[in-house]
Amino acid sequence: MAAQDRKRVVVVDGGYESYDIEQRILAPLHADVVVDPCHGDPARIKIATAEADAVLVRESPIDKEAIASMRRCRIIARYGIGVDNVNLAAAQERRIYVANVPDYGAEEVSDHALALLMSVARRTVTRDAAVRSGAWNVSRREKMYRIAGRALGLVGYGRIARTFERKMRGLGVGRVLVYDPLLGASAFAGVESVDLNSLCEQSDFISLHAPLTRETSHIINSTRLALMKPTTILVNTARGGLVDETALVEALRSKRLFGAGIDVFEREPPAPEDPLFGLDNVVLSDHTAWYSEESVAELQTKAAEEVARVLRGEPPNHWVNRWTGG
């Protein structure tokens, strides 16, 4: 096959040890996988994707300008669930499919949310530091509360939230309250569907599992933090922008909130002077909830398969910017 007839699939973010999976899936379609890490630089992304037949992206912004410069792109596939870094309207206007991988990592993210919650509830980070410094038998200096019998609040009730619910029920939570306006009434069997303010008022543990949109930006703000009990633990493994971090820091600093487990930030990576770093009632991780060796392979496989479908002339399974007649 002549070089000009081969398809070009551009990966604009590095981060995986190899791209053998993508190459294996796409080679039968006469497609070359080109890894061109752009490090989030919009100008570099625009150049790297201009001649791409398909784009694979993790975190870099695929903005309106980059999409306008794409001469023959047919699909932008996101390695992950959220697509807030892709301009969906611009891609739709150009009839470029945008696809995500919503059905991976539910076990990993829910495990991580549970680990953060448990670490905050049982104060394992501060206890580790105390023991290393010579402290012993200081249990009541930092109060702890039983998990069993308390109320779990879930903001968003998709696959990950339901997996997390299953694990929390195993710890004996008494009630499960859910806020998800995108779901119909039939989706809430076995849980209590409530408005967000009620969830904040009544829950002892609140775990965020919503996408980041214009409507959900800062959905947890100073007003809703003020509704929470002083014994409430907030966990965010979804998107940093769901939480007003300035308001969260104030609530944690003043002990109006028991604690928080945070895997995602408004700014990533956070600045070295981020005030969350100075608080002892918050446990932090580096947007790593999605990760296991198994989830990486699953993610790379499913993203590449979406590209393969489109290159064969089919729509992707998880098409997020739908248009009619496409």
Explained architecture:
There is one protein chain. By secondary structure, the chain is α/β, with parallel strands linked by helices. The protein has two domains: 3-104 and 293-311, 3-Layer(aba) Sandwich (Rossmann fold), CATH 3.40.50; 106-284, Rossmann fold, CATH 3.40.50.720. Helix content is 32%, strand content 15%. The strands form two sheets. Strands 8-7-6-9-10-11-12 form a seven-stranded parallel sheet, with helices on both faces. Strands 2-1-3-4-5 form a five-stranded parallel sheet. Helix 1 (20-26) packs parallel to helix 11 (293-311) and helix 5 (106-121) crosses helix 7 (159-170). The longest helix is centred in the C-terminal third of the chain and has 19 residues, at 293-311. It is elongated and about 75 Å long. It starts with 6 loop residues before the first strand and ends in a 15-residue tail after the last helix. The model has no long low-confidence stretch (mean pLDDT 96).
Summarize, please.
The protein has 326 residues and is of the alpha/beta class. It is 32% helix and 15% strand.
Write down the overall mean pLDDT: 96
**CATH class (first level) name of the largest domain:** Alpha Beta
Order of helices and strands: EHEHEHEHEHHEHEEHEHEHEEH
State the strand order across the main sheet. Answer: 8-7-6-9-10-11-12
User: Ranges with pLDDT <50 over ≥5 residues?
Assistant: none
Strand content range: 5-15%
From the alpha carbons, calculate the radius of gyration and give it in angstroms: 22 Å
